[in-house]
Write a structure and sequence with these properties.
Blueprint lengths: L24 H10 L3 E3 L9 H8 L5 E4 L9 E3 L5 H8 L6 H10 L5 E2 L8 E3 L4 H4 L13 E2 L2 E6 L6 E5 L2 E5 L2 E4 L5 H11 L4 E7 L3 H6 L10 H9 L4 E4 L6 E3 L4 E15 L2 E2 L5 E2 L2 E13 L5 E2 L6 H22 L3 E6 L8 E6 L6 H12 L5 E6 L7 H11 L2 H4 E8 L11 E8 L24 H7 L5 H5 L2
Parallel strand pairs: 1-2, 3-18, 4-12, 20-21, 21-23
Antiparallel strand pairs: 2-3, 5-17, 6-9, 7-8, 7-11, 9-10, 10-17, 11-14, 12-13, 14-17, 15-16, 19-20, 22-23
Helix pairs in contact: 4-8, 4-9, 9-10
The structure holds manganese (II) ion.
The site of manganese (II) ion has 5 residues, from strand 8.
């Protein structure tokens, strides 16, 4: 794990030998490269489709780095965190500590540290031409054009001055114009406040940032909690930030690229379609417009793109959601041990919950608690503590052998769901809860999993490597 050389950094209480969190995108690329997890593709791969094709095929196995994409001087990187284990490494914790660590950071944010030494402002473009200045990829077949898909959108509450950080999809609609989809959350509320006063709203988009700040941007926290302070808590140091050239917004000083601008009041332009996390297109419609006023970047900047629906896209949303749902459930059900948003459920719709069962019927209360905790959830499966919820085959086994539909199924019709689930009626659909726990009254042997004594002690990798042979006959000779 790379160490940072800033003497103010390491958290003494955390111990000097413990793995340290990753602080910068470049450190993370070093780490991935050392682990053999970074594929550097040939130069000049086309920005339209070809770049996304490589990134998608290598998703989950390798991060991808594209030198001179489409002949552009700025390289593109993708797939920075396409595995849960990688994210735990970036945090400097074990995978089973990851949700608790994230929740801790969300509850104990660390204020940012203002600086004027900002690598991200080494190069300044006040004459903006996005298509010339940045390598802008087009991903899916029917996407409305090139997109900025991995940009942290930073805005300030016009009333309180507090910042908000999140990711919105931004379609490039002209040399200095972006069409931005604002779902009804914090950025949307700020733009609405500004619009009501007939004012534009300043905004900055940060592209090319460390994995922990990326993850922090997806935290589910109240309005006026600056997600950059959660990034600081995850990094165990106050995040260095710098003031934008054209606004009061503070952006991470060590980022690669910043696109400064403002949302125009009462202007809407067409945006979409765009390939989204459920593996379908989000529709084309009239959206908010951001006018770009400046682009700043490092001398040797790197552009980051997230291919819609890939593991990187799914995991960045899923980990903060899991952490929030776990904390939410544990308030009422302290025997909930772990939760997991499954990949097959697009890491948004299907939740697996592991419990230490205390009371028959309890699984159904837990399902209702989970549905109340996130409107996106469509299916909840509750299992006992002998089931690995990170393995979908294990969960299906529990459903196959511990669940009866007439007794253990909960259906709630006509409820609010994700609008991006095409099987809903504009976001109205059904919830399904499955109790795949064993009844407490069952005799012990009825649900006892079979086990061969000693099987868990065998080092399979070692056996596969040393004991695989083409000459089995020779091996039998005395
Ligand atoms: Mn927020």
């Amino acid at each position: 794990m790379p160490r940072h050389d800033d003497p103010t950094q390491p958290d003494e209480a955390h111990g000097s030998n413990a793995p340290q969190p990753i602080l910068a995108l470049r450190d993370w690329l070093d780490h991935l490269a050392k682990q053999g997890r970074l594929a550097v593709l040939p130069p000049d791969i086309a920005l339209k489709f070809d770049l996304a094709a490589y990134a998608k095929r290598l998703d989950g196995q390798r991060a991808t780095l594209f030198p001179r994409p489409g002949g552009h001087a700025i390289p593109v990187v993708s797939g920075l965190v396409s595995d849960r284990g990688w994210m735990a490494e970036a945090m400097g914790v074990e995978p089973d500590e990851m949700l608790a660590r994230f929740q801790e950071a969300a509850l104990e944010p660390l204020p940012c540290r203002e600086t004027t030494l900002a690598p991200v402002q080494e190069v300044v473009h006040r004459e903006v031409d996005l298509l010339k200045q940045l390598p802008l990829p087009t991903h899916n077949e029917h996407d409305g054009g090139p997109y900025i898909s991995a940009g942290l959108m930073i805005t300030r509450n016009p009333r309180t001055g507090k910042q908000n950080v999140t990711i919105h999809r931004c379609q490039v609609n002209g040399p200095d114009r972006l069409g931005v989809l604002l779902l009804p959350r914090h950025t949307h509320a700020f733009v609405q406040m500004a619009e009501e006063a007939g004012q534009p709203l300043d905004a900055a988009i940060v592209v090319g940032i460390d994995p922990l700040t990326l993850l922090a941007s997806q935290a589910i926290v109240p309005m006026d909690q600056d997600e950059l302070e959660i990034a600081g808590a995850l990094q165990r140091r106050p995040l260095p930030v710098v003031k934008c050239l054209n606004s009061e917004i503070r952006v991470p000083a060590e980022a690669e690229i910043v696109i400064e601008g403002r949302f125009l009041p009462n202007v809407r332009e067409l945006e979409g379609p765009f390939g989204e996390f459920p593996q379908y297109y989000g529709p084309r419609a009239k959206r908010h417009v951001m006018e770009v006023t400046a682009v700043t970047h490092r001398k040797d900047a790197i552009f980051h793109t997230i291919v819609g629906g890939g593991l990187e896209h799914l995991l960045l949303g899923a980990i903060p959601k899991e952490a929030t749902l776990l904390a939410h459930l544990r308030r009422n059900f302290p025997n909930v041990l772990d939760v997991h948003l499954s990949p097959g459920g697009v890491m948004r719709y299907h939740l697996f919950v592991k419990i230490k069962k205390r009371q028959d019927g309890e699984a159904k209360n837990i399902m209702m608690g989970a549905f109340a905790g996130s409107f996106d959830l469509k299916q909840v499966v509750v299992v006992d503590d002998d089931v690995d919820i990170h393995n979908p085959t294990e969960v299906e086994w529990a459903m196959a052998t511990r669940f009866q539909a007439d007794r253990d199924l909960l259906i709630v019709g006509e409820s609010q769901n994700s609008k991006l689930d095409p099987s809903t009626r504009d976001g109205v659909g059904a919830k399904m809860g499955i109790d795949a726990t064993k009844p407490l009254s069952a005799p012990e042997m009825t649900f006892k999993r079979i086990r061969v004594p000693g099987e868990e002690k065998i080092d399979v990798a070692e056996v596969l490597k040393r004991r695989t042979t083409a000459d089995w006959r020779g091996a039998l000779k005395p």
